[in-house]
Amino acid sequence: MALTSKIRLQVNANQVNAIDLGESRSSRVLDVAVSLASGTGAGQGDLVFVDTRTLAASATEDLDLSGALADAFGVAQVFARVKALVIQAAVGNTNNVNVTRPASNGWPVFLAAGDGIGLRPGETLVLTCGVADAVGHAVTAGTGDLLTVTNSAGTTGVDYSIAIIGCSA
Asked: Which of 99, 103, 118, 159 has a CB 3.0–4.6 Å from the CB of 90, allowing a cystine?
């Protein structure tokens, strides 16, 4: 099954400053665009997992990147390497969505066990590898393949959307 992917993020910042007899303006643009062809080498990916998920109050789930996630056709996605990760906490959440590396079998996208980030309502985490990167972020079945997602509080549920693009080899 062929897969082509595009990840794009654009920051477009415009500043206006009132000065005597007019305005001073400055525009800055940061455009990050990564296109991945189908395959397992540099600038390629052949696996994808996309989902919107719900966690009950105080709930935690471990996402197993080496086989427990299925694509849109129900096929298990056994990632050997990840080229892109996007996680977005829903705007309507009351609590944060915490994304961490668990102590046991944690996927080493974060430097140490327990490291992670709390995504506030509406916040997005984006991680992409450059098109020249053939390695990506390695996934090791049984020892480095879990990504933990936790609802930060016990009051209400949270929703989040996730996309993972990577390689089978």
From this structure: 159
Cα angle: 161, vertex 64, 137; to 5 degrees? 85
Model pLDDT for residues 107-142, shown as the tens digit of each residue: 999 999 999 999 999 999 999 999 999 999 999 999
State the burial class of residue 24 (Cβ atoms within 10 Å of its Cβ: 0-12, 13-18, 19+). Answer: exposed
CB neighbours of 125 closer than 8 A, spacing ≥ 6? 85, 86, 87, 88, 99, 117, 119
Phi then psi for residue 123, to 5 deg, are -80, 150
Percent of the chain surpassing pLDDT 70: 100
Q: Is 39 exposed, middle or buried (0-12, 13-18, 19+ CB in 10 A)?
A: middle
Residues 6+ apart with CB under 8 A from 73: 1
Q: In whole angstroms, what is the distance from residue 69 CA to residue 76 CA?
A: 6
Q: Which pairing describes strands 47-55 and 22-38: parallel, antiparallel, or unpaired? A: unpaired
Question: Which among 68, 53, 48 has a CA at the least distance from the CA of 163?
Answer: 48
